[in-house]
Amino acid sequence: MKNRAIVIVLDSVGMGYLPDANEFNDVGAHTIGHVYEHSGMKIPNMVSLGIGNIEGSRLPRVRFPRAAYGRSLERTKAKDTTCGHWEIAGFPMEEPFRTYPNGFPKNVIEAFETKIGRKVLGNEVASGTEIIQRLGDEHVRTGYPIVYTSADSVFQIAAHEDVIPLEQLYGFCETARAMLVGENLVGRVIARPFVGGNGKYTRTENRRDYALEPMRDTILDGLVKKGMDVVGIGKIEDIFAHRGITTVDHTKNNPDGIEATIRFIKEGRGDFIFTNLVDTDMLYGHRNDPDGYAAALEYFDSKLPEILSSMSDTDMLIITADHGCDPCFPGTDHTREYIPILALIGRGKPAELGTRRTFADIGATVYEYLTGESWSCGESFLKLLI
Predict the structure, then answer these.
(1) Across the chain, what does the average pLDDT equal?
(2) Domain range spanning residue 167?
(3) Distance between CA atoms of 192 and 158, rounded to whole angstroms?
């Protein structure tokens, strides 16, 4: 049987603040540790693989872990989804995207307003769920979209689906995406549609992300050039601006993303399956909900035996994350943290991966396993898995 690789990104499941966290005001963050200490969550299957054996994990250790285990630093000076995934895929950015802790410059907002033909509300750093409650009524009354950002490099546009129809909102996002380059290089423009009324609003699952294409090849591009089938599940296609992906299943929540991953594995489809499970970040990390966060991890853990039993002896599985978003830490933004790595081929074997110097080690490992060749960035740990 041919080799196949599966990478599952548990979005925002960080594992302790990085040595440079003081530069991001994130000293003290520890997403999975704080969630565990708050909730006492039970994730026995990941524990059996060795997640608690990772240095600094704060989770229960086992004597005989079933997989290779370790953690990684992020080389890119950032803590956002795009930079995290690009680095996992073998492209650390030397210069991170711009962030806007005081909102976007006046000239940027005025240019955007001119292009869409209406004013905007907000233009501030805010929680998405909070700002629609605060400005939602004014938005409904005026028809002005709500623009906001966060500690990450994002230009987010929120609009009520009955006030600004989805296709029009998506058009506004495409306009912003075309503008936010050069000196105002923003990682992602995000459509944030919502519904409701009278000060009580709820975001819908019709979010859409508009990312830039990576400035150089990732392993996704490398694999496609070799004729391989790269499957993107969840928001992977958005993060890579639809490049380097041959098959897409744009699931919108964790249960659907997990089921899609299992289906592709069982059907023997894809050479590389790349899955993002977003709920931990979007629904619970940003909303300071450690109990919901724990429940989402417990649900994934409950499905892990089915994932593992569906794999062949030549399937490689890597479970990891892209940054932190500690629901017990002050604020609602991402946190600058180590990411965990659990890796195995077939039934797996224990191995200590240590602390990797870049997320790109994951991509280098996948690329070597599927092609037998080295990737241009990162150090493969394949020899520790075989």
Answers:
(1) 96
(2) 106-210
(3) 4
